[in-house]
Amino acid sequence: MLDSDLKFQDDILNLYRHFDNFEDDNVIGIAREQQPVYRHTFSSYRLNHPGTTVGEPPPDGLTGFNSGVLLLNLSRMKKSQSYNNLLKSDELTKLAIEFNFRGHLGDQDFYSLVSMKYKSLFYVLPCQWNRQLCRWWREHGYKDVFDLYFDCPGHIHLYHGNCNTPIE
Protein backbone atom coordinates (compact mmCIF):
# COMPACT_ATOMS: atom_id res chain seq x y z
CA MET A 1 0.00 0.00 0.00
CA LEU A 2 1.50 3.30 -1.06
CA ASP A 3 0.81 6.99 -0.41
CA SER A 4 0.34 9.15 -3.49
CA ASP A 5 3.17 11.56 -2.59
CA LEU A 6 5.98 9.15 -3.49
CA LYS A 7 8.67 9.18 -6.15
CA PHE A 8 10.39 5.92 -7.01
CA GLN A 9 14.11 5.95 -7.81
CA ASP A 10 14.23 2.17 -8.16
CA ASP A 11 12.18 -0.71 -9.54
CA ILE A 12 9.15 -1.41 -7.34
CA LEU A 13 9.99 -5.12 -7.66
CA ASN A 14 12.97 -4.48 -5.38
CA LEU A 15 10.59 -3.17 -2.74
CA TYR A 16 8.37 -6.22 -3.19
CA ARG A 17 11.37 -8.48 -2.59
CA HIS A 18 11.48 -7.31 1.01
CA PHE A 19 8.62 -9.73 1.68
CA ASP A 20 11.35 -12.41 1.46
CA ASN A 21 13.01 -10.85 4.52
CA PHE A 22 9.95 -11.16 6.76
CA GLU A 23 10.39 -13.36 9.81
CA ASP A 24 7.64 -15.81 10.72
CA ASP A 25 5.73 -13.39 12.98
CA ASN A 26 6.00 -10.34 10.70
CA VAL A 27 2.72 -9.32 9.10
CA ILE A 28 3.60 -5.76 8.02
CA GLY A 29 6.68 -4.20 6.47
CA ILE A 30 7.03 -0.50 7.34
CA ALA A 31 9.79 2.09 7.71
CA ARG A 32 10.54 3.99 10.88
CA GLU A 33 9.31 7.55 11.30
CA GLN A 34 12.17 9.89 10.40
CA GLN A 35 11.10 12.74 12.67
CA PRO A 36 10.68 12.94 16.45
CA VAL A 37 6.88 12.96 16.16
CA TYR A 38 6.52 9.95 18.48
CA ARG A 39 9.07 11.34 20.90
CA HIS A 40 6.53 14.15 21.22
CA THR A 41 3.36 12.03 21.13
CA PHE A 42 4.66 9.68 23.83
CA SER A 43 6.04 12.53 25.98
CA SER A 44 3.76 11.74 28.97
CA TYR A 45 4.76 8.10 28.91
CA ARG A 46 8.44 9.08 28.56
CA LEU A 47 8.15 11.46 31.52
CA ASN A 48 6.77 8.70 33.73
CA HIS A 49 9.22 6.05 32.48
CA PRO A 50 12.74 7.48 32.60
CA GLY A 51 15.19 5.48 30.52
CA THR A 52 12.52 4.11 28.17
CA THR A 53 13.40 3.60 24.53
CA VAL A 54 9.87 4.63 23.51
CA GLY A 55 10.21 7.63 21.20
CA GLU A 56 14.00 7.47 21.18
CA PRO A 57 15.93 7.72 17.89
CA PRO A 58 17.42 4.83 15.93
CA PRO A 59 19.12 2.50 16.00
CA ASP A 60 17.86 1.32 19.41
CA GLY A 61 14.90 3.61 20.00
CA LEU A 62 11.26 2.81 19.34
CA THR A 63 10.73 5.68 16.92
CA GLY A 64 7.27 4.76 15.70
CA PHE A 65 6.49 4.19 12.04
CA ASN A 66 5.55 6.09 8.91
CA SER A 67 2.79 4.40 6.91
CA GLY A 68 3.55 6.02 3.55
CA VAL A 69 4.90 2.67 2.32
CA LEU A 70 3.40 -0.58 3.62
CA LEU A 71 4.09 -4.18 2.76
CA LEU A 72 1.04 -6.08 3.97
CA ASN A 73 1.15 -9.86 4.13
CA LEU A 74 -2.62 -10.27 4.07
CA SER A 75 -2.67 -14.02 4.62
CA ARG A 76 -0.45 -13.69 7.69
CA MET A 77 -2.53 -10.78 8.95
CA LYS A 78 -5.64 -12.91 8.67
CA LYS A 79 -4.01 -15.84 10.52
CA SER A 80 -2.18 -13.86 13.22
CA GLN A 81 -4.00 -14.18 16.52
CA SER A 82 -1.81 -11.44 18.03
CA TYR A 83 -2.58 -8.99 15.24
CA ASN A 84 -6.30 -9.75 15.14
CA ASN A 85 -6.57 -9.40 18.91
CA LEU A 86 -5.24 -5.85 18.58
CA LEU A 87 -8.07 -4.98 16.20
CA LYS A 88 -10.51 -5.26 19.09
CA SER A 89 -11.24 -1.85 20.56
CA ASP A 90 -10.86 -2.99 24.19
CA GLU A 91 -7.35 -4.38 23.51
CA LEU A 92 -6.28 -1.25 21.68
CA THR A 93 -7.76 0.93 24.42
CA LYS A 94 -5.71 -0.96 27.03
CA LEU A 95 -2.58 -0.35 24.98
CA ALA A 96 -3.38 3.35 24.56
CA ILE A 97 -3.92 3.69 28.31
CA GLU A 98 -0.71 1.81 29.11
CA PHE A 99 1.31 4.17 26.91
CA ASN A 100 -0.78 7.27 27.69
CA PHE A 101 -1.21 7.62 23.95
CA ARG A 102 -3.44 9.95 22.01
CA GLY A 103 -2.68 9.90 18.32
CA HIS A 104 -3.65 12.09 15.41
CA LEU A 105 -2.19 10.31 12.36
CA GLY A 106 -4.69 7.49 11.78
CA ASP A 107 -3.30 4.14 10.66
CA GLN A 108 0.27 5.32 11.27
CA ASP A 109 -0.56 5.86 14.95
CA PHE A 110 -2.08 2.38 15.13
CA TYR A 111 1.09 0.76 13.79
CA SER A 112 3.31 2.92 15.98
CA LEU A 113 1.36 2.24 19.17
CA VAL A 114 1.15 -1.49 18.51
CA SER A 115 4.88 -1.65 17.76
CA MET A 116 5.77 -0.41 21.24
CA LYS A 117 4.71 -3.74 22.67
CA TYR A 118 4.42 -6.11 19.69
CA LYS A 119 7.63 -5.50 17.71
CA SER A 120 7.59 -8.96 16.18
CA LEU A 121 4.54 -8.12 14.05
CA PHE A 122 6.66 -5.71 12.00
CA TYR A 123 9.45 -6.04 9.50
CA VAL A 124 11.35 -2.75 9.52
CA LEU A 125 11.91 -1.52 5.99
CA PRO A 126 15.22 0.27 5.44
CA CYS A 127 14.78 4.06 5.54
CA GLN A 128 15.87 4.29 1.91
CA TRP A 129 12.52 2.70 0.91
CA ASN A 130 10.53 5.52 2.54
CA ARG A 131 12.82 8.55 2.61
CA GLN A 132 10.59 11.10 4.29
CA LEU A 133 11.36 14.68 3.36
CA CYS A 134 9.30 16.57 5.95
CA ARG A 135 11.31 18.74 8.34
CA TRP A 136 8.42 20.22 10.33
CA TRP A 137 9.60 18.98 13.74
CA ARG A 138 13.04 20.53 13.28
CA GLU A 139 11.49 23.97 13.61
CA HIS A 140 8.91 23.01 16.24
CA GLY A 141 10.87 22.18 19.36
CA TYR A 142 13.14 19.31 18.36
CA LYS A 143 16.07 20.90 16.53
CA ASP A 144 18.55 19.41 19.02
CA VAL A 145 17.57 15.78 18.21
CA PHE A 146 16.00 16.08 14.77
CA ASP A 147 18.99 14.81 12.77
CA LEU A 148 19.18 11.64 14.90
CA TYR A 149 15.82 10.65 13.41
CA PHE A 150 16.20 12.20 9.96
CA ASP A 151 19.56 10.64 9.05
CA CYS A 152 19.20 8.10 6.23
CA PRO A 153 22.53 7.46 4.49
CA GLY A 154 22.91 5.48 1.30
CA HIS A 155 21.17 5.24 -2.05
CA ILE A 156 17.53 6.38 -1.80
CA HIS A 157 15.06 4.05 -3.53
CA LEU A 158 11.87 6.01 -2.82
CA TYR A 159 11.24 9.62 -1.78
CA HIS A 160 8.18 10.50 0.29
CA GLY A 161 7.00 14.11 0.09
CA ASN A 162 5.17 14.01 3.40
CA CYS A 163 3.94 17.29 4.98
CA ASN A 164 3.43 18.55 1.40
CA THR A 165 7.20 18.69 0.93
CA PRO A 166 8.11 18.98 -2.74
CA ILE A 167 10.11 16.13 -4.26
CA GLU A 168 12.80 17.46 -6.54
From TrEMBL:
GO molecular function ontology, one term from the record: UDP-xylosyltransferase activity
InterPro entries: Nucleotide-diphossugar_trans (IPR029044), XXLT1 (IPR042465)
Protein name (Swiss-Prot/TrEMBL): Xyloside xylosyltransferase 1
